[in-house]
Predict the structure.
Amino acid sequence: MIRIGRSVTISGFALTLALLAAPSAHAQSADMTFFVTSNGPGKGADLGGLEGADAQCQKLAQAAGAATKTWRAYLSTQAADGKPAVNARDRIGKGPWQNAKGAVIAKDVADLHGPANNLTKQTALSEKGEVNNGAGDTPNRHDILTGSQADGTAFAAGDDKTCKNWTSSTQGAAVVGHADRKGLRDDEPSKSWNSSHPSRGPDGGCSQADLKSTGGDGLFYCFASN
């Protein structure tokens, strides 16, 4: 009985020490300033506009313990209905930005949109600190909604590149990037994290099923703007 009691006591003590020594995932996430959403609102590219997308970023960040920051979705909109275009690069603050594990993905806006950024499959983590499925995984979820050109600016008015400024889950198209920097070809669009190709599909291009059919899931990038 004494041996058992001591064994349990020692084991409990060792477990306590291990828990104290291990870094808290919640604490790590508190310093996070960038993530890929683990899920979208579930209505394809209808995110409720920029406001709805920002709210989704804030909601996921809060669940991860990073609610004190102001979160913005990396999304552009096109000029329409008398409203000017919005550039994704202008929404996200000045940087630097780091993922849930502390890896810096870019030090500023220019670095983020330059060839030396640190955005890869291993660093484009969700708010939970998880690696997102990419090319070769089942299911592939590397298509990330941006509606942006490679430099982070909006497309000109005309051809829809944003699923009607993130309000359509049927007709339209949204430009996506590849979070894992891989595609069907070895060219720059296939390797682009923010401007690879437009969405498409039998429902019109903007539904959840359409986004999944080309390797997406209605996910987008979130950045802490402060």
